[in-house]
Amino acid sequence: MLRFSTAGESHGESLVALLSGLPAGVPVDQAFLDRELWRRQQGFGRGGRMRIERDTAHILSGVRHGKTIGSPIAMTLANRDWKNWEEILPVETGDPEKHKAVASPRPGHADLAGALKYDFPDARYVLERASARESAARVACGAVAKMLLKSLGIEVASHVIRVGGAELSREATFAEVAAIADREDVLLACVDPESEARMKAEVDIALRTGDTIGGVFEVLVHGLPPGVGTHVNWDERLDGLLAQAVMSLQAVKAVELGRGVTAAQSLGSTVHDAIAYEAEPAQDGSPFTKFSRDHNNAGGIEGGISNGEDLVIRGYLKPISTLRRPLASVSFATREVTKASYERSDVCVVPAAGVAAEAMVALCVAKLVLEKFGGDSLGELQRNYNGYCQQIRAF
């Protein structure tokens, strides 16, 4: 079973990522891994922390001579900002006078709920782990999962479709979305320059007024065959697992699959994807079966099972909780009304959230692919996978 976990705090010495369950022989490209981490740091509206950090993954185990060896992969991502926090957040007792308390909880953050849960006198330790800085370790694990999926011809990409009130004005092809990963100026990771300019204007307003702004990102999975996931148990459905994976990201408050939102207000005749069959499908048709659909309103999933179309997952990201013009709060020490604490923060992180969601989707899909096709080596996995693809082509 593919499993991953992360450890580390926002201002600690490093983040730690642990990934186990991969077969042996998967090529691991360090440059690609670091590029994924770089992508997570980009986007118009990012804050000062991104000018400090230059994320790279240091692989400690599980990879030798450029390939996985079947054992757990351990990675560390050093926090450059640690040098400014060594005396503030030491592992040992240290000097309590140097502790930097989060004295009043920020509305929308985990500060108050976490302080109550763990009986902390302030929210510093809650902030340190609840911070979206943790998602960098997820991206590192997701990059390796992407390398596994790519060896089977499965690709994962994301783009931004809304920031504030500015929305992408047209449909995007997978090729357009995938090309964003190669851009050096990520800006807001939108495929359409005019729509992206409107999004940038929304971020500019939030920046000028000391506010923050949210939006919607879309993750696409291309090349996944029908039959991944199942309908037989509630906790094995592909749609449910994807929703949980994306919802687990910091600041994501809703997840949509396919036309999930607009489908709820539509007639069935306009929502469901009609099915056709061609005994000799065109060369540009489905690579998996002779069955096809006229649209992809279902987002590539029917009954908890992939249907061969692109998976389409959208994450709805709330605005970042830390405001330069803080909202009202209460002092932990005095219980008096005050302003919420301010920590160096971003204005807009929608493109970065899309990259983190790519990682979570890749990890989720890779786990299900390994469960379905198995194999202790990449060669065994590919033989099993190719045999299944031949089976469904012949159906």
Write the layout of secondary structure elements.
Blueprint: E1 3-7, E2 14-20, H1 30-41, H2 49-52, E3 58-61, E4 63-64, E5 67-68, E6 73-78, H3 111-118, H4 124-130, H5 135-150, E7 155-163, E8 166-167, H6 174-179, H7 193-208, E9 215-222, H8 238-247, E10 252-257, H9 260-263, H10 268-271, E11 275-277, E12 291-293, E13 301-302, E14 305-306, E15 311-317, E16 328-330, E17 337-339, H11 350-373, H12 378-393
Helix pairs in contact: 1-5, 1-11, 5-11, 8-11
> How many helix segments?
12
Number of domains: 1
Protein structure class: alpha+beta
In percent, how much strand structure appears in the residues?
15-25%
> Strand order within the widest sheet?
8-7-9-15-10
Q: What is the ordering of alpha helices and beta strands?
A: EEHHEEEEHHHEEHHEHEHHEEEEEEEHH
Major beta sheet summary: 5 strands, antiparallel
Shape: globular
Share of helical residues:
25-40%
Looking at the overall shape, the CATH architecture is: 4-Layer Sandwich
CATH third-tier fold name? Chorismate synthase, AroC fold
Q: What is the mean pLDDT? A: 95
Could you tell me the radius of gyration in angstroms? 22 Å
Report the span from N to C terminus.
Answer: 29 Å
Beta strands, count: 17
Low-confidence stretches: none
CATH class membership: Alpha Beta
User: What's the CATH H-level homologous superfamily?
Assistant: Chorismate synthase AroC
